[in-house]
Design a protein that fits this description.
alpha+beta, Aminopeptidase, 5 strands, about 35% helix, globular
């Protein structure tokens, strides 16, 4: 089992299909159907930014999932102290390989990156209907400290 950093936007866009499909099914008014060309172009455009990092988990050269993280620096303001965090944008394991500890291995990679960068906070959010994500992060001892709500008019 290897975790490798990548800038292969086509690979990430292929692995993203399941993430996008889940979002489009749960929230069809918010999310578009998966479009490989558009999503690949998006990932290509952001992969050059140094604060974004992508890691793929593989076994015998088969790509099983990925994590997209961002190193964020929050500036001090009159209400909040400054801090740095590693923000998890997306983490997914392809369906056939879920519940085998691979997501935890990707989280462990994020922990290593945080420690290397002297960062003591990892942040993530997920859509409220995504019970799989909620259960995964709860199991890995993530706690809620902020909620985002909306009301459609």
């Amino acid at each position: 089992m290897n975790i490798i950093q990548t800038q292969n936007h086509e690979l990430i866009s292929e692995l993203n299909r399941e993430v996008q499909d889940i979002h489009a099914q749960m929230y069809p008014n918010h999310f578009k159907e998966y479009d490989q060309v558009t999503i690949s172009a998006f990932f290509k455009s952001i992969m050059t930014k140094p604060n974004f990092q992508f890691y793929v988990i593989e076994e015998q050269e088969q790509k099983l999932g990925y994590i997209w993280i961002e190193i964020r620096e929050y500036q001090e303001n009159p209400f909040r102290k400054s801090y740095k965090a590693v923000y998890i944008h997306q983490l997914t394991i392809i369906k056939a390989y879920r519940n085998k500890g691979l997501g935890k291995k990707l989280l462990n990679k994020v922990y290593e990156i945080a420690v290397q960068n002297k960062i003591n906070k990892i942040e993530v959010d997920y859509w409220a209907k995504n019970e799989v994500a909620r259960n995964f992060y709860n199991k890995n001892e993530y706690v809620a400290y902020r909620e985002f709500r909306y009301k459609d008019l």
